[in-house]
Amino acid sequence: MTETNVAPRLREKYNTEVAPALKEKFKLSNPHQIAALQKVVVNMGVGKAIENKKRIDAAARDLGIITGQKPEICMAKNSVAGFKVREGWPVGCRVTLRGDRMYEFIDRLFTLTIPRIRDFRGIKTKSFDGRGNFSMGLADQVVFPEINLDKVDWTQGMDITFVMTGNNDAMSFELLKQLGMPFRKN
Questions:
Q1: Which of 55, 103, 125, 170 could bond to 11 as cystine, CB 3.0-4.6 Å?
Q2: How far apart are CA 70 and CA 93, in angstroms?
Q3: Domain range list for the chain
């Protein structure tokens, strides 16, 4: 496979359309004040891995297919008797995406995956953390077109966190909206 030096479509859109629009709308004089995506963290908590260790392997395999990057297995930090969890047991997996992979993942998420969600009415805007970061959840991994339904043993939900510079919820909302995030209309 040959490598091309073509930037992802969403990065080009950010550089040519979104960043200048944010600079103008928020009347920023310094280009470093403009909100930008730093990273995207995709996390799958697999609480049922306690009952069946194969669940963590299946979740990691699916997360790797979805993101194109090998997931990190997350271990329990503490033992919790009520949840039957011991320290050091695998309880989830996560991937941190940056650069071109991040933009390609976001592009696929906005244009292919989210429209496939049944009865989708838009993403709620209340999931900003006060510092400009946004989190959303998906009920299962089968909404991604990369996942083969015949090979899915268990459905598993996931959380997706968009970490942005700027420390401003309003500017981060505008950034995600202009990149194509289908927010719910109030």
A1: 103
A2: 10
A3: 9-174
